[in-house]
Design brief:
It is a single chain. This protein is of the alpha+beta class and 437 residues long. The chain folds into two domains: 243 residues, BirA Bifunctional Protein, domain 2; 90 residues, 3-Layer(aba) Sandwich (Rossmann fold). The chain has 16 helices and 16 strands. The strands form three sheets. It has an eight-stranded mixed β-sheet with strand order 1-5-6-11-10-9-7-8. Strands 13-12-14-15-16 form a five-stranded mixed β-sheet, sandwiched between helices. It has a three-stranded antiparallel β-sheet with strand order 2-4-3. A hairpin with a 5-residue loop joins strand 3 and strand 4. Helix 2 packs antiparallel against helix 6 and helix 6 runs parallel beside helix 10. The longest helix has 17 residues. The radius of gyration is 28 Å and the shape is elongated. 34% of the residues are buried. The model has no long low-confidence stretch (mean pLDDT 85).
Length: 437
């Protein structure tokens, strides 16, 4: 008892002051109470992925820096400011994966994934790393789940399928009020004329433009439309709209995507100024917004030029991704509790050393039968153990004392109505199964 009291006092002291060792800024622990939510998201991802015939892929956390510098574009915020760079002893320049799409494109060519037939549909889940200022819904290590479709022609039906995968996942998680914000940023040909008009508009308003956008308009013009600065927001309100500059092919492509979305009844809002922050996107771009949240919980788009930029070949592709931490924040805000799947309904109470020892082998018998049993071997009194069983919301308590061990029996107590009876130990697994049906 004295040891327990000392440990409790020590823990209180630690909580009351800043510890010498903390998790790294922008990175966080996923605690036991949040694990049911994470498991819910993982299971839903797997279910949706398999239903729509996506195959699971996992890529390494470390990748060559060159593929992201080339693939994402050197003028992007990710490459300029946000990549975690690692120099190896051999002099190689690696990065902690800042996103999945480029890594998956590398894997597609490296392993000849076209052998699976065209298109190849892949889904993933895992951590990504970006060095940015931590804030609501934004971390330096965060997790993404996503769906990629590689190797098909630039058919708008695949744009819709990429959106559909992420949206059906959102539905399965029972997130309400989620809308797709969608736009087309055209192709290289029609985008060039639009960029000239955009540059002219921002240069005309150069004195009102923020410092960052002065650089962006020279290096990566579309990125000015992503700026959150109030002054730049006012300039954007009068900026030319890219949809007015799309060529016939890009207009037809976008119109078809919207028609397909209408067909599967996915709500969308055309956001004429929506662009994505990475250079590899063309034509369809989109983001998912949940009601009551001012940041996107996910997004994606078509990236037909990425493989050529990486000098790997020509390959049409499209994909979508959701930020797991952001999705979980929306889940928490919904107020719907998520119970741990397969939570134990049976609690083993022991009294005495012989009962504790016999209890170990008894739990193994339940394990072989596919049933979970919780216990509190660190507590000795009947009252304290039953209190834990009640807190765990166990349906049945199995009470094993010295007398019961000697008689090869055990007491089953119904925690809801308080009745109890003695049952032979040889029949206990069968009896518990019967009562929990």
């Amino acid at each position: 008892m004295a040891e327990k009291e000392t440990a409790q006092k020590s823990e209180k002291k630690v909580r009351g002051k800043k510890m010498a060792y903390q998790s790294v800024k922008g990175m966080h622990d996923t605690l036991p109470e949040d694990q049911p939510l994470w498991e819910k998201v993982r299971l839903a991802t797997r279910h949706i992925g398999e239903f729509y015939n996506f195959l699971r892929i996992d890529t390494p956390i470390l990748e060559s820096a060159d593929i992201f510098e080339r693939g994402l574009g050197e003028g992007t915020d990710v490459v300029e400011k946000e990549m975690f760079v690692v120099k190896t002893k051999g002099g190689d320049k690696l990065v902690l994966r800042p996103e999945f799409t480029t890594a998956i494109m590398r894997a597609y060519y490296q392993h000849g994934l076209s052998q699976y037939g065209q298109p190849v549909k892949l889904y993933y889940e895992g951590p990504v790393f970006r060095y940015e200022q931590p804030q609501a819904g934004r971390f330096r290590q965060f997790h993404q789940i996503g769906f990629e479709i590689l190797g098909a022609e630039s058919d708008p039906i695949y744009d819709t399928q990429a959106i559909l995968g992420a949206y059906r996942l959102i539905e399965e998680l029972k997130l309400k009020g989620v809308t797709v914000h969608i736009n087309s940023i055209g192709c290289h040909k029609c985008r060039a004329a639009y960029i000239k008009k955009l540059e002219a508009h921002y240069k005309k308003n150069a004195q009102k433009t923020c410092k960052e956008c002065k650089i962006r308009i020279a290096n990566n013009p579309l990125r000015v439309l992503d700026c959150k600065d109030e002054k730049c927001q006012l300039i954007k309100a009068d900026a030319p709209i890219i949809l007015d500059y799309l060529d016939t092919e890009c207009k037809t492509h976008f119109k078809k995507v919207l028609e397909y979305l209408d067909e599967v009844k996915i709500p969308y809002h055309i956001d004429s100024y929506l662009v994505r922050g990475l250079d590899y996107y063309n034509r369809t771009v989109f983001e998912f917004f949940a009601e009551g949240f001012d940041y996107a919980i996910g997004g994606g788009g078509r990236y037909d030029y990425l493989s050529e930029t990486l000098k790997l070949g020509k390959l049409s592709a499209v994909g979508s991704a959701l930020g797991v931490e952001r999705v979980i924040e929306v889940l928490k805000a919904s107020g719907r509790p998520v119970a741990a799947k397969g939570a134990s309904k049976v609690f083993l109470v022991h009294m005495g050393d012989e009962a504790k020892k016999r209890g170990l082998s008894l739990i193994e018998e339940f394990r072989k039968a596919g049933m979970r049993v919780n216990e509190s071997f660190g507590k000795d009194s009947l009252k304290s153990q039953l209190r834990v069983a009640d807190k765990d919301q166990a349906h049945l308590a199995l009470i094993l004392g010295q007398k019961e061990v000697f008689e090869e029996s055990i007491i089953i107590r119904d925690m809801e109505i308080g009745t109890q009876e003695n049952v032979p130990l040889t029949r206990i697994v069968e009896e518990v199964k019967k009562r929990l049906k």
